[in-house]
Amino acid sequence: MVRAVSGSGAWNAGLAAAEGRCKRNKVATVAGKARGKAKAKTKEKPRVGFRRWALRAVLVLSALLVMAILGYRFINPPTTPYMMRESRRLDGVAQEWVPMERIAPVMARAAVAAEDANFCRHWGFDMAAIRGVIARGEVRGASTISQQVVKNVYLWQGRSWPRKALEAILTPAVEIAWPKQRILEVYLNVAEFGEGVFGVEAAAQRSFGISAEQLSSSQAARLAAVLPDPKRRDAGRPSDFVTLRARSIADGAATIRRDGRAACFGADG
């Protein structure tokens, strides 16, 4: 009897010890899980914080761009990134803003004929011109006046993919927010017409000694002829190529006037 009781006591003691170990293991497991969750949360916090920061940055940038697009519909851009860069390089540039009413209609038609003949018919991208460029295997040549305005006013020069992506986003926004006449007005005031010469007013004065509203058809065509390559072409002292190109532009400007493609920017009269 004494041995039986002693054995039973040993059994009970062993069982109690096993239960104690089991409880300790459970506590350790729970504690381990808690520590694991705490570590996971610690790892997640930086990720969540970065996502929130990135989202806020995108929202702030988007808001600033919207404000800039809407603002420049009514306020003339004081300068452009490229103009500032050239001003630093050349220690100053020539540019004088003039409203559309003080630009000769022949100049507006010549610029459209030279750079974007379908300006009044597209929504920012000339798909027919783009298809033609692709078919010919060219890498450039289909940029519309709207795209050039976005590049000149809001972005930077070059052909990087980030710039092209932003241009593709901003161009339709500008087309929606600005009337066509405003797009062309901004273009004619910020486009480069020569080394350190920006805008049609400064170009007319530099090349011909007159204001933009006094330009003749041939003078306007010569100014438009230098637009694709203003650092190597000169409207005041035109090469044979510029002279021939100007004649073609003058014919195109007359055609645009006849078929109504100048109505959207008020130069069809």
TrEMBL record:
One of its GO terms (cellular component) is peptidoglycan-based cell wall. Its main location: membrane. Residues 92-250 form the Glycosyl transferase family domain. Pathway: Cell wall biogenesis; peptidoglycan biosynthesis. The keyword Zinc does not apply. Pfam families: Transgly. One of its GO terms (molecular function) is peptidoglycan glycosyltransferase activity. It is found in: Cell inner membrane. It comes from the Bacteria. Keywords: Cell inner membrane, Cell membrane, Cell shape, Cell wall biogenesis/degradation, Glycosyltransferase, Membrane, Peptidoglycan synthesis, Transferase, Transmembrane, Transmembrane helix. GO terms for biological process: cell wall organization; peptidoglycan biosynthetic process; regulation of cell shape. Gene3D superfamilies: Biosynthetic peptidoglycan transglycosylase-like. The chain crosses the membrane at residues 53-75. It is a single-pass membrane protein. It catalyses: [GlcNAc-(1->4)-Mur2Ac(oyl-L-Ala-gamma-D-Glu-L-Lys-D-Ala-D-Ala)](n)-di-trans,octa-cis-undecaprenyl diphosphate + beta-D-GlcNAc-(1->4)-Mur2Ac(oyl-L-Ala-gamma-D-Glu-L-Lys-D-Ala-D-Ala)-di-trans,octa-cis-undecaprenyl diphosphate = [GlcNAc-(1->4)-Mur2Ac(oyl-L-Ala-gamma-D-Glu-L-Lys-D-Ala-D-Ala)](n+1)-di-trans,octa-cis-undecaprenyl diphosphate + di-trans,octa-cis-undecaprenyl diphosphate + H(+). InterPro entries: Glyco_trans_51 (IPR001264), Lysozyme-like_dom_sf (IPR023346), PBP_transglycosylase (IPR036950), Pep_trsgly (IPR011812). It is an enzyme of class 2 (transferase). Belongs to the glycosyltransferase 51 family. Peptidoglycan polymerase that catalyzes glycan chain elongation from lipid-linked precursors. This is Biosynthetic peptidoglycan transglycosylase. It comes from Poseidonocella pacifica. The lineage of its organism: Bacteria, Pseudomonadati, Pseudomonadota, Alphaproteobacteria, Rhodobacterales.
